[in-house]
Structures are given as C-alpha cells and as structure tokens.
Amino acid sequence: MALTIKGIEAAKPNISKTTGKAKLVRLSDGNGLFLEVTETSKRWRARYHFEGKEQMLSLGVYPVVGLKDARDKNFLLRQQIAQGINPASERKKEKSQMKEAVQEEKRIAKGEAHPLSVEAVALDWLEDVRKTWKQSTYDGEKTRIIKHIIGPLGGMRVDEVKPADVRTLFQQLEAEGKYDTLRKIAENTVRIFNFGIAVGKCENNPAYSIWKGLSFKRPDPNRGFATITSPDKVGKLLLALDSTMTEKCGLEVSTALWIAPYVFLRPGSLTWGEWSEIDWQEREWRIPGFKMKNNKPHVVPLARQVVEHLENLRRYTGEGQYLFPSYGKSGHLTTNSLLKAIHAAGYGSKEFTSHGFRHMAVTLLKELGFPHDVIYLQLSHTLERDAAKAAYDKAQLLPQRREMMQAYADYLDSLREQATRKAAA
Questions:
Q1: N or C: which end of the chain has fewer CB within 10 A?
Q2: Judgement on whether residues 317 and 397 belong to the same structural domain of the protein
Q3: Average of per-residue pLDDT across 288-316
Q4: For the chain, what is the mean pLDDT?
Q5: By residue range, what is the domain housing residue 362?
Q6: CB within 8 A of 91, min separation 6: which ones?
Q7: Among candidates 347, 349, 379, which has minimal Cα distance to 363?
C-alpha cells in the first residue's frame, strides 16, 4: 500500500514489550521504496537486485527528502538498473568525484599542482631522474622544464594533452631560433609523457609523434660553442682577459679565468674544484667522476704556470673546501661568473664563451702536432675502443699528456707575449 504524508507523519517505531526499547519499523511505498522509522529519524531506502544480488541504497532523510522526492529518486534508480548501471557503484563514483573536487580546491588554495597535471608528472619525473644527474644538470633542466613545459602546459591534465598542444610549444621555440632548447625540451617532453604512461597517469605520448614526425630545423652538429682559434686572436684574447682580471675581478674569478685556457676543463668542473683534488707532489688535478660529464675520474697534469697561480690562491682560500669559494648557494663560483668576466673583456657570447677554451685547445694542439688520442684523452672524451683498452691508454698516455700540457702552457704564454709586443708597438 502506497504511503501518504499523513501516514508518514504519524509513523512511530514499535516498542518491545519485553525490553521497552524502540524497534525499527519499515513502511513500504512499493517498487522497492520504503521508509525506515526509528526513535530519532525517518530515512528513505530503496531495495533492488543487481546481477542477482540484493542491495540497498539510502535516498535521504524525511522531511528533507519528501515523499515525492523519494519516489522521483527511486524512479531514477530503476532507470539506471534498466541501463545496466549499479546505482550503488554510481553513488560511490559521485562521492569520489566530489571528494576529488574538494581536494582540488584545497590544492589550488595551497598552490599545489593536481596529481594528474602535466606539472605534477613533470616534477615527479624530475625527482625520479635526479639521482642519475649531477646537481648542476638537475638545476639547469628543472629551470628549463618549468619555463618551457610547465609554463604553457602545466595546468592541463596529462591524459588530455593533444599532439597539437605539443606542436605549438615546439613551434614557438623554433620560431625564436632556440634550436638547442627545442632539442632538449622535445626530448624531455617525450620522457615526461613516457613516465606518465609508466606510472598509469596517461596512456599515450602526444610528444613523440610531433618530435619525430615534423621537420623541425635541427642545430648544426658541427657548430659547437663560440671560440677563437687564430693564434694572433688567441694572444689578444689572453691579453684582454688579463686586463679585465686586473681591473674588474676578485682573486677567485681572476685565478679561475687565468687557468681556464691552460687546463681547458668544462666550466662546471673547473669552478667546482676542491683543494683535496690537487696532488702537489705529482702536480696533478684529480677530479672525481661525479663531477665529470661522462661520470669517469679525470686527471689534469698541471703546467708550471698553473701550479704557481694555484699556490698563490692557496694562501687565501686554501683553508676552505673549494679553490674558488663564493657566498652563493653552491659555496663555489658558478660558470656564469666566468662568462661575465669574458663579457667584461669585450667578448660577447657569439664571439667566445668559457666553454670555448676547450675547442680552442683542440685546434691549437692539433696544429702543434700532438696526437689525436693524447688530445682527446685530456679532454676526457671517450675513444672508440673497448673499455679495457681505453683504461690502458689512459694510464699509458699520462706522461705524453703531461708533456703536452706544459708545452701548450708555454705556447699560450708566447702568444700573450706576442700580443703584448704588438700592442706596445
């Protein structure tokens, strides 16, 4: 028998004759809808069968949910069942979505990224690969990814990014002529989405087809860093740097910049130098593998001129950890310090960079007649040999490398002297 408003209002729980306690009463309205009446509430419930199992679902409390509302909800529930949808499962899904929405609002209020956003996945990937990178590499890649990937795409869900979104990002970098950045960003975008697939946050990689399928202009692989290789111009460069060091640089920057062409290390390895790495007796700078690009220990034979400059520097910074200490976060000079000093000497980034000392050394050493293997081992480049042979060569060629480094230092001194004479003439 169908319920009425009057009957619902008058409904009360049964009282047990033995215990005196109220007992729940269920009043049926038909079609699986009934009202549960207790001492404290009257609650609507719907009974139904789904896939052979009886289930119950709460439809709200009377009088907040009236009789008509309860019947309407029960009718919608029966429609879901007819469509093969379990109302209980659908209710759980809705609650989960509401919970996620609330959590998302809280995250936004705290400035946090949604866990399925490109930003969250990119930062998780960075954290995952961090242990395989040097700190300087990690810092540089993170800055680049935040600017060029998280900036334009960070707020999007990683599973909703389309190839067209990635294509726009890549084309913008290409239009600006940032081909090196384009290459790095493209490779990392592919890796970030591959990571998203691996952790179950997306199913496709929208970046892969764009990077591999379109004919973006690639940087010339032979162009390298800006450098100077003409002996006359090298002499003028050394003279200009000497003048800048005297007038505008502190002792740490001056010494680092002075020895840079004589040791031709990568700028990061140079500025990260520590006193514990200097072997004064053997006159060698022994750099641990984690500071090198190829993660292999490297030995730099020190020419007489370099030793003299380091001995002078030791009187001022030798009590500390680093050769070239700084008040910055890292505790030592940054590569940017060298670049600024080079700019102060009148050489822009398109003319010469701190990395250019390596390219300069390769050209000049070849012209001086030194063997390819000796030069490239000193650059810490991997030769095309098996590992055992490469290790053997590295040990056997150290005397030749020591001879080469002294000869090269003397040659640089001669170029500086020639430039000085020409300038005075």
A1: C
A2: yes
A3: 91
A4: 87
A5: 231-424
A6: 57
A7: 379
